[in-house]
Every structure is written in structure tokens, then in C-alpha cells.
């Protein structure tokens, strides 16, 4: 591998930033969560909202959810510890590793999607 390659260089010569595939993946997750959260919302404001308002709530939820997941990923990269110490045993160590792999992104995704739906359907 070439020593001059950085995070933005790929083997096929196309310069794609590293966050683009992550944004696509988290965008798909945000789409699923936004559709689920708007269709399963049984509050009186959501039930009385028009179809256009619900579609707009899904779109805003997708955008804010994707941004929230990417911000969570940036926070994870900044704050993730280099070593994990636990007294809980093997399963505690697995839980810590899983949390630091996807936890901040999922928290940002959920907050963004729910905030987007709440802002539109209030």
C-alpha cells in the first residue's frame, strides 16, 4: 500500500470522503426509524396532522437523524477510550465494546429523528 494514501484515498482512484458511506448507512437507519416513529405516533397532534405534514416530518426526521448519528460518530471518535477495564466479566466487556462501537451514533440518531418529527408535528 502506498505510504502517501490517506483516509480519503481508495484503491480504485476515486476520492470519496470516509464519512459518505457512514452517512448513507445512517441515512437508511434514519429513514426506517422516522417512518416507524411517525406511523406509530398516537398523539392527538400526530393523528390530526395531514399526510403532507407527516411526510415532511419523516423528511426532517431523516435529515436530523443522519446529522445526529454523524455527530455521535464524531463524539465517539473523540471520546472513545483506548483501553477498557471492567470488574463485570466477559459480558460486561462485550457490552462496553458494543456501546463504544455504535452507542453514540444510535443515541444521536434517535434524538435527531424524534426531534425532527416533534418539530414538524407540534
Could you please describe the fold and organization of this structure?
The N and C termini lie far apart (53 Å). The chain has four helices and no strands. It has one domain (19-120). By secondary structure, it is mainly alpha-helical.
What distance separates the N and C termini? 53 Å
Whole-number count of domains: 1
The gyration radius over C-alpha positions equals: 18 Å
Decide which structural class fits the backbone. mainly alpha
Helix content: 55-70%
Total number of strands: 0
Total of DSSP H or I helical runs spanning 4+ residues: 4
Helix-strand pattern, N to C? HHHH
Q: What is the overall shape?
A: flat
Residues in β-strands, percent? under 5%
Low-confidence parts: none
Average pLDDT works out at 87
- Describe the biggest sheet? none
Helices and strands, with pairings:
Blueprint lengths: L18 H21 L4 H4 L3 H29 L10 H31 L2
Helix pairs in contact: 1-3, 1-4, 3-4
Amino acid at each position: 500500500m502506498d505510504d502517501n494514501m490517506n483516509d480519503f484515498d481508495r484503491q480504485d482512484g476515486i476520492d470519496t470522503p470516509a464519512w459518505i458511506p457512514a452517512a448513507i448507512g445512517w441515512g437508511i437507519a434514519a429513514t426506517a426509524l422516522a417512518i416507524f416513529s411517525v406511523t406509530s405516533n398516537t398523539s392527538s397532534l400526530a393523528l390530526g396532522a395531514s399526510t403532507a405534514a407527516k411526510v415532511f416530518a419523516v423528511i426532517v426526521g431523516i435529515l436530523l437523524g443522519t446529522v445526529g448519528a454523524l455527530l455521535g460518530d464524531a463524539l465517539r471518535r473523540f471520546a472513545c477510550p483506548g483501553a477498557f477495564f471492567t470488574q463485570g466479566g466477559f459480558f460486561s466487556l462485550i457490552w462496553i465494546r458494543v456501546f463504544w462501537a455504535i452507542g453514540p451514533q444510535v443515541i444521536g440518531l434517535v434524538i435527531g429523528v424524534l426531534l425532527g418529527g416533534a418539530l414538524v408535528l407540534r
